[in-house]
Amino acid sequence: MTQPTDIRRESALLPGRDHLRTALSLAADGLPVLPLRRGKLPFGNCPTCAHNACGGRPNMKAAGACGCPAPCHAWAAATTDPAVIASPAWASAWRHAAAVAYHPGGAGVTVVDLDDPAAIAWARATLPATRTVATTRGEHWIYRGTMPSSNAVRPGVDVKSLAAYARWLGNGMGVTELLPDAVRALAVKDPSPARRAAQSLTGSLGARGGVCPHRTPTYLERGVAMAVQRITEARSAVHATVYRTFLAVLSTHGRCGCLTDAHVGRLFTAAQAKGESPRHCTDAWTNALTTLGL
Description:
Layout: H1 4-11, H2 17-28, E1 33-37, E2 41-42, E3 60-62, E4 65-66, H3 82-85, H4 88-96, E5 99-102, E6 109-114, H5 117-126, E7 131-134, E8 139-144, E9 150-154, E10 157-160, E11 166-167, E12 177-178, H6 181-186, H7 217-232, H8 238-253, H9 261-273, H10 278-292
Parallel strand pairs: 8-12
Antiparallel strand pairs: 1-2, 1-5, 3-4, 5-11, 6-8, 6-10, 7-8, 9-10
Helix pairs in contact: 7-8, 7-9, 8-10
């Protein structure tokens, strides 16, 4: 049986050997890889996907499982198996490959793709510093952790993680920071009108009401006051800050039943003073509850 080291040695004799060598090296480091053709598009690796007949997306029968014969194209084709990467089935793809891509979610990371200087300026003012790689037009900010992928989460910003691929741009992964809530919040979509939450605070949005059994009232008061201050002092990314603050309050007090309508009302009032609508406040609170499983 051919060993991975033998495949790397043989790759020097194969067409597209530079991209193939890069792919094998990345796979050895645990990054699921795939070839890209011109235009940063994946190859079709089966009749269903040939010539982009499937519309450029894996035929999903279930989340994370492609319905086409393996290996299918796009992120579903990404693999760390050197025998597949250097197989005859992929020989033509590597011969014509324009770049190497990888599946961020499969590697346990999330890529914040910043397409222009304005997006980069926003990231520098809003997100924690992490591993950064230059692209043709902007930068990739790489965080440790996965989340659903989403394009155009704000002008010039895409999020690539699960069910997505990103172009490999060299320089290694290096040390990355933990995926922040500010990035997770970017992919939170407004509910459809049919499911949209109430436009104002009516009834209790606290966890269960009553007195917190394991925290003193002083501790709770200090926590709510700090949350209000955090929202009030936000200078950018107000929506993300509100969601992140709600998440922090609920993670501490959401399961013990100490939050009352008065506490939640103070948080909502602070958020609305920063320009958030009542609906956005309610949606952010509901999304935080859902995230924490409350």
